[in-house]
Amino acid sequence: MNRVTVNREMCKECEYCMTFCPKKTILAKSKSLNKMGYYAIEAQNMEDCIACGICATVCPEGAIMVEKDV
Amino acid sequence: MSIVYQRPEVFTNEYMKYCGGCGHGIINRLIGEIIEEQNWKEKTVIVWPIGCSVYADKYFKVDSICALHGRAPAMGTGIKRSCPEDLVIVYQGDGDMVSEGMAEIMHAGIRGEKFTVVFVNNAIYGMTGGQMAPTTLMEQVTTTTPYGRKQENTGNPVNMAEIISQLEGCYYSERVAVTSPANIQKTKKAIKKAFQYQMEGKGLSFVEVLSPCPTGWKMKPADALKHINDIVVKQYPLAVFKDLGRGEKQL
Amino acid sequence: MSKVFMQGNEAFAEAAIRCGCKYFFGYPITPSSEIPEYYAKKAPSEDLTFVQAETEVSAFNMVAGVAATGKRGMTATSGPGFSLGCEAMSYMSAASLPAVIVDCMRPGPADGEILGSQGDYNQLTKGGGHGDYNTIVLAPYSVQEYADFASLSFELAEKYRNPVVVASDGTIAKLMENVELPKKNYEFKRSDWACDGMNGRSHYNDITTCGDGPEQWEHFNITLQQKYQTIQQNEQRWEEINTEDADIIIVAFGSLARVCMDTIKIARENGKKVGLIRPITLWPFPEKAFEKYEKTNTKFFVTELNAGQMVNDVKIAVNDKNRVEFYGKLGGITPTPIELYQKLCEIYP
Which chains contact C through at least 3 pairs of Cβ atoms less than 8 Å apart? Predict the structure, then answer.
């Protein structure tokens, strides 16, 4: 399965990753605040992820890592 | 597992001090990616401006110097003349460049200084809290144009990429935007091309990047991107205004 | 070594080139313009970088850029240009950049005149720009000393990583004298703090003057002040002439000190025991020169080509223990030795 890892403490909840993800099921806001006071984005439903890397491309924080299962 | 994307190694682990959705973070990251991909870390010196990116020296594991407000092109001149083999990146915002530092950037272009300017245009003063910049759009509301920017008092927005392209000393001038995955890739390509020209010893390479300021514009980040795509590009069209190396073999 | 007959500004420029200052950024202004002109002329044969900047603001910042790469660079200007450069002086002091700046003082305020003056004393010695900072200020009184300060200014700048100002004036700048120029002996070594690209260095460098919270910035400022205290301890320089038995000591620097050297001769011929203290460093001010007069009746006669600026530092140095009087000339007129002697006799009959 492909993997998207969001550095929770770096995330500022701008939602660019959610906006541009071609699969709308993967990225969602968490229910709790990070240390900076944001509802950091979390990755879920990894079976839908196509590892296109768009979420990382648009992330202003450099907080996202994308890995492809090969 | 193969890595599709990971944070550039040239980045430190500092959390960026930009607001959520700020375009600076994306542009900083693109610069980091290019430095890393081209293996230029050892020969890079970045001159940072006063403005929102004043702390960006803390995000990069390369030689960094933070210039005075508007003076980054003058400082870049000193550094590049001293170290002509280095990749000297002069990073400026629109208040820094177009207001305080108009003389410095114009004369860097007039002299044809052989460094790269990455000009982040978000049409507002971000760091000081959302005041009007020379690049602010007509009728745009800022804290110093509370009734919208009016021509009779403040004149009109300034199109730097076009102006710089008119100078003989400019080798390359392009305006891009970080408003979508495709546009971000185009931005990266433009900055990479500018760096490449510099490493070939060409004249001033200038990349203007339209960048969202969700806080200053009082918009949600995604709306700020849409605002650039729908409104801002009408004043600041995305185009290559000068490319003297067009047609030559590129990276 | 043979001497050559040279103008002050040109002698300084030639000496600076011989000391390894290969970078000059400047904006033309009288009476400093021979220095940029000399660099421009010598650039091809001596492999120098000369850039005529669009403003003094830019020239000072270009010097900051070269200094940040660890290489020797400088600019030369006069009062109006130095005022524009003060922003960068504040910056370079905070950023610990070893640059050299020549201020060929001319009478102000504003555009003023273009002859000799010492009206920039306060601006040069009290900072001039914003914030708590100091720059080392050297005041030459002859073409020889002007030329000698090329090497000394860079050595001090690099020793303390602090900007150094050479405070000449319209007189010393334009004066022609016999001068012995230094030999070429500078060898460039990379500095491990410099922003010249890592290029094999194991760490990356970050030069910033941007505070990161009040505690950090207070600590930064305290460290800076400690450096200034060290400089004040180590670098006070002055010359004393005929002070051993003097009842009256003239205090004068730079071009006016030349005149005073003749004034003390006239005074001695007329039976008055007059000596001279000539501050060489205006900052740090040579307070140590005045210590030994604390318990004496020695009187001081301070004369300057301004409305009275250094006299305040003399008063602080003698701490109200001695009488201090002042005579100044404004507008660019340098008084004659006799005029100064007469003035001295009026004050101290």
Answer: B
